[in-house]
Amino acid sequence: xxxxxxxxxxxxxxxxxxxxxxxxxxxxxxxxxxxxxxxxxxxxxxxxxxxxxxxxxxxxxxxxxxxxxxxxxxxxxxxxxxxxxxxxxxxxxxxxxxxxxxxxxxxxxxxxxxxxxxxxxxxxxxxxxxxxxxxxxxxxxxxxxxxxxxxxxxxxxxxxxxxxxxxxxxxxxxxxxxxxxxxxxxxxxxxxxxxxxxxxxxxxxxxxx
Length: 209
Hints:
Layout: H1 2-10, H2 17-22, H3 27-30, H4 35-40, H5 46-71, E1 79-91, H6 94-100, H7 103-124, E2 128-132, E3 136-141, H8 150-166, E4 178-190, E5 193-205
Antiparallel strand pairs: 1-3, 1-4, 2-3, 4-5
Helix pairs in contact: 7-8
């Protein structure tokens, strides 16, 4: 069980080593663990389960990459088929806002806006901000690491973002609103250009407000 103990220690959760040992969970089994399995093992804290699932996804990705490398070279332009949820958000009325504020005030408002997106999306819901567009952001759930509830977390993040942006405090008297669009589906992703996505059979789920 030394391997599993070292893995748990590497993600700061060594206190669960005994429970894993008692249930005969070693590194050959950990790849198949689900969130329900972790609950059954006594991992009650959501944050701890998220850390474990993220690390398991990374282990699976590394194992898959090693397997590919052992059989054939990976071409730089090779595309990977992934289930991905994509969110796009943009600020409502940004053109009018830019016309009514001085440049310094506008920059400070936009910084507060982007900081809020980071806090909600990346810190709270573990999404990935792939690109920023000044008054908008392109966000991935399921890349580079995939989780079982990527689509659900995207929707929750979108709803939370609508409320959070509306409550952003700025040094000027402006009320901010954001539009959110979410689509999920099977995509082809080129590893060398992760931001270039080739859509395949996507089905949008719009949560604009």
